[in-house]
Every structure is written in structure tokens, then in C-alpha cells.
Fold this protein.
Amino acid sequence: MSLIIDIIHDFFPAAVAAIGFGAVSDPSPRSLLPIGLLGGTGHLARYLLMTFLDADIVTATLGGSLLIGFLTLLLAARVHQPLSCLYIPALLPMVPGKYAYKSVYSLILFVQSTHSSDEHFRYMMAFMSNATITFMVIAMLAAGATLPYFLYRDRSFSMTRQRHPKKQ
Amino acid sequence: MSLSHLKIDNSPKSPFYDFIAEYVSYMLACGVHTARVISCATRICEANDLRMRLMTTSRSVVLSITDTDGNCETRVMAIENQAPSFRVNALLSRLSWQAYDEGLRLDELRREFQRIKASPRFPFPWVLTLVSIANACFCCLFGGDFMSCMVVAVATLAGFWLKRTLTSHGISRYIVFVLSSFTSSLIASVSILLNCNADIAIATSVLFLIPGVVLISGMVDTADGHILVGVSRLIDASLLILCIAIGLAFTLLLVKNSLIY
């Protein structure tokens, strides 16, 4: 029961977040539901990988973004939208905001702790570690979601085609 | 839109070349990654027995179009600074397929292109509401309690409204991002007084500013071999992220003694 609540608690906020962030970039109204589904599913996949397989955040993010990438291939064909219009907003709930915040915070404390070499070093280490994780997670988001585009390049360019060709 | 011509031969197809140049520059301005732009423009050209090559930088695009007789014309177009649009991306891509499958004439292509350009964006009040709810949900995902989610929603509302207002006054994007980030995070720091998850609220309050489209398009372009425009886009996104961090840093400097590291 608690697992179901956890799943709901993870899926729905991520789905709403994906739709909201998608709205910033002027989406087609018909793409909002698929964006929500993809955002929720990707984030839930990452949560499950981290909870049940003890995966680290970078590996789990790669898993979540790969799932988003492949599901986008299926959904984009149904709503006749380019892949990037669906997977970009769906990835945003997985942006490592906490790590990015800690990087900035550590950097400020690092700059202001020149009087103590111990603290100076500790904040530098904290900055390096948080910034590295932030960068790695963002890189995995892009790598995972765009892999299907590179694998099925021709197919991904024909998602917006709405009728069978006369030519060829 | 500024258009400078470098015409080697003033052929009867010149208006068509002008259309292709405008189509390509508008698509790039909407944040579409380069391979898709090339694919769509090439499709329209192939439907009209033309061959196209293009080179793009972050601010301009150079097109060279050749007809079956070997006559070549070149167009240089500026890429305007405008907000990304998924809807325009989809509609322009669909237009290229219509040109290919249904053999649309130039006047039909132009009419449809102007209709797409003139079509209204997603309504701003809806965007404002959805973004605020989205960022509140983001706060919830990071473990924020109900009160911090509410604070984040209000902070996002203010920050996003400020971003749009400043942008409409033609202020530099970098200043807009610093000020929006500072305003959102400063309002989110009210959560310190309300005894809720202040660090989570401040961290999530600025995330609506992340330039996701530019970042991902830059990575796709770079991985796809369009290194010049890809790296330009990545540098552009990095500068915007730096601006977000500067705005957030100003707030943290003000409230850091009240936060637990």
C-alpha cells in the first residue's frame, strides 16, 4: 500500500511539473497529455531504480531518460509531434535542482571562508562534488533521451507526416 | 526580418529561394535543432527539384540553393532572438511534409507559413498558472512540505511575470535572468520565516528559468556533428544558467546565516 502511495506521490507531481515546464515553450495543446505521461513515467522509473536497485542518481537518471526517449518514439507518432517537443519538457522534472543549489551555496561559502583553510577546502570539495553530479545528471538526461533519435533518425523526422506519400 | 541578398543570378525561382531562407531562419529562431531544420528545408527543395546546402552560426544562416540547370543562388539571413516554440516547430515540420506529399505551390506555402507565424502563442495567463503549479510540484518532488510548495508557487508567479515584463521592454536576457532568479529566490526565502523547508523552497524557486530547449538542442547539434552551432547553443545555455546562479547567489548572500548547510 505504501509503495502505491509512493508511486502516486512521485508520478503525479512529476507529470504536472513536466506539463507546466512544457507550457513555457509554447506547446501544441494535444501534446500536453503525452508530455505529462512521459515526465511522470521517467521520474517514476528513476525513483524505482534508486529505491529498489540501489542505483546512484546518475545511472538511475540514464535509465529514466532512456525510457522517456523510447516512449517518445511511440507517443510522438500518435500525436504527430516532433520528438523534441515531447521529450524536452518531460526531462525537466529530473533536473538535479538540489545539487545545483548546493553547488552555488558551497561556492559562496568557499569564497567567504578564506580565513580557515579547513573550511575553505571542505566547501571546495562540496562544490566540486555537487557540480560534478549536476553536470553528469544533465549529460545523462540528454544522452538517454536523444539515443532513440540517433538510432531511428529517419523515423524521428517523419512524425509530423499526416498522410501516405504519393511520391517514391 | 532583415534580409540581405547575394544574388549570383536573378532567376525566376528567386521568390522561392527567399521563402526557403525565411523558413530556415524562422525555424532556427524557434529553437529547432539543426538536423531537423536541414531535413525539413531539403524536403521542400526536393519537392521543387532543387538542392540545398546551408551553414549556420548562432546569429545567421547562409543557404546555397542549386536548380537542375546548375544555377546557384545564395541567401544570408539573420536569426532573430525569440522564445522557443514547440508548436511552430511541429507546424513548420508538417508544412514541409505537405509540400513534399501534396506538391504545394509557392503562394500556398507562403500563405500557410504566414498563418503559422501569426498564430497566437499558448495564452500567457495559462502559462503563468501552469508554471507556478509545476514549480510547486517540483518542490514537492524534492521533499518540500505543503507550505514550502505554496511559497514556491508564489515565488515562481512573481519571477515568471517579471521575466516576461522585462523581456517585453527589450532588456538584455542576461539581466532579465539575474533579476528573475533573484526575485524568485528572495520571495522563496520567506519560507525561513514560515519555518518550512527553506533550502528546498529556495533551490526549486529558480528552476523554471532553466533553458531546457537550448541546452538539449545544443547537445543534439554537437552530437550530430553540427559542432559550431551546437557549441554556440551550449555556451548560450551555460551563460543563462550562470545568470540564474548569480541571482540565486545574491539571495543566499542575504539569507545564508538563516540556512543550515
